[in-house]
Amino acid sequence: MDANKPKVIDLFAGVGGFSLGLMRAGFDLALAIDKDKHAMAAHKVNFPNLDHLLTDISDLDGNILLQRANLGRGQLAGLVGGPPCQGFSTMGKRDLSDSRNDLFNKFFELVQQSKPKFYVAENVLGILHAKYEEILTNALALVEDEYVMLPPLRLKASDFGAPTIRERVFFIGYRSDKKKVILPEHFEDHKVSKITTVTDALMGLPRIIDENWLSEKDGWRSYEPLPNSYFWDRVKGHIPENVGDKEALRRFNEEKIISGCLGTRHNSSVLKRYEILQQGERDNISRASRLDENGLCPTIRAGTGSDRGSFQAVRPIHPIMPRVITPREAARLQGFPDWFQFAPSKWHSFRQIGNSVSPIVSEVIFRVIASQLDFSQTSS
């Protein structure tokens, strides 16, 4: 860890969408926690010099968090995370009794106990539904006396330069400081004037993907040089110190190849349907939609974990080619850099990408927090 940077703990860290954004914004990641062994393995690859904890946060309290992060009372700048959202999602059953809903409350218990300078919790818009009002009210009540709480912020990734319509709600609070304040308009100031389209996002990636490219080794393929822009700068660079797998970075910079260009085998009838499907249309059988090259990518879904049947989410169809997109194309559409690594398998890669916060969005959030709060002194 860098002793001069404010320290943050990332709960439900997944593959690292929050982690990358906060480190790009100048924070230091003191600890990353997740109970998914595949997500933690990928996180370790991308953040090799940081402390990782493979566990369910239900078993933790604030003191354990601080001890594991090697931080004393008042030294934690931020506690961040995206508690599981499936119980609140409009795509799911919206089950009030879903045990995953309890983890939203647990997040705020840990805020109350560890007393960071600020917190950021991310979730689906469904959590704002009236049926979850009691869950939301009870969770926020745990911190309302000690934190200035912003109204729930609905942020759409495309507004900040990512090529996806993915919209999520962020709950942000900070310990009262009469000299510093965070306002919703501070985030509005970072909106881009021009969207990043699907065509922009997929530029330079191989269009022709062999259906037999199924192994991790097969997925390493060459890419074309990219132009300069805000989006491309984040695809190519902005690599924080001690972040990134050394071999992946070497191959990206020296050999001009990237991972995740994995093929999918479609039978002849599927290929025929995909060939005639128009951009923006949905295939009636697979329910997959063809991407509009001049538009935005719909929200990429994660599917379900092994505890929920291991169902694969429907993957978008490439705007030009008669196939579903590759993990690397999905990563681009979510705003991840080309040097960033995911699980070796397609199934786990898409789960990690679909479950993640776009690092482009998280970087904006943490840059606003870094610019508006004073971290020169530890919190009380």
Can you offer a commentary on this structure?
By secondary structure, the chain is α/β, with parallel strands linked by helices. The protein has two domains: 7-191 and 357-372, Rossmann fold (3-Layer(aba) Sandwich), CATH 3.40.50; 198-355, Alpha-Beta Complex (DNA Methylase, Chain A, domain 2), CATH 3.90.120. 30% of the residues lie in helices and 12% in strands. The protein has 13 helices and ten strands. The strands form two sheets. Strands 1, 2, 3, 4, 5, 6, 7 and 8 form an eight-stranded mixed sheet that branches. It has a two-stranded antiparallel sheet with strand order 9-10. Strand 2, helix 2 and strand 3 form a beta-alpha-beta unit. The chain is globular and about 60 Å long. The two termini are 22 Å apart. The model has no long low-confidence stretch (mean pLDDT 91).
Instruction: Please provide the count of β strands.
Output: 10
| Biggest sheet details | 8 strands, mixed
CATH class of the largest domain: Alpha Beta
| Helix proportion range | 25-40%
The radius of gyration is: 20 Å
**Domain module tally:** 2
Q: Please state the overall shape, judged from the principal axes of the Cα atoms.
A: globular
Mean pLDDT: 91
- The name CATH uses for the topology of the largest domain is Rossmann fold
**Beta strand %:** 5-15%
Relevant terms:
single chain, DNA Methylase, Chain A, domain 2, two-stranded antiparallel sheet, 380 residues, globular, 13 helices, alpha/beta, eight-stranded mixed beta sheet, Rossmann fold, 2 domains
Secondary structure layout:
Layout: E1 7-11, H1 17-24, E2 28-34, H2 37-46, E3 52-54, H3 62-68, E4 76-81, H4 102-114, E5 118-123, H5 133-141, E6 147-149, E7 153-156, E8 167-175, H6 184-188, H7 198-202, E9 221-222, H8 230-236, H9 246-255, E10 257-258, H10 268-276, H11 327-334, H12 346-355, H13 359-372
Parallel strand pairs: 1-2, 1-4, 2-3, 4-5
Antiparallel strand pairs: 5-8, 6-8, 7-8, 9-10
Helix pairs in contact: 1-13, 3-4, 4-5, 11-12
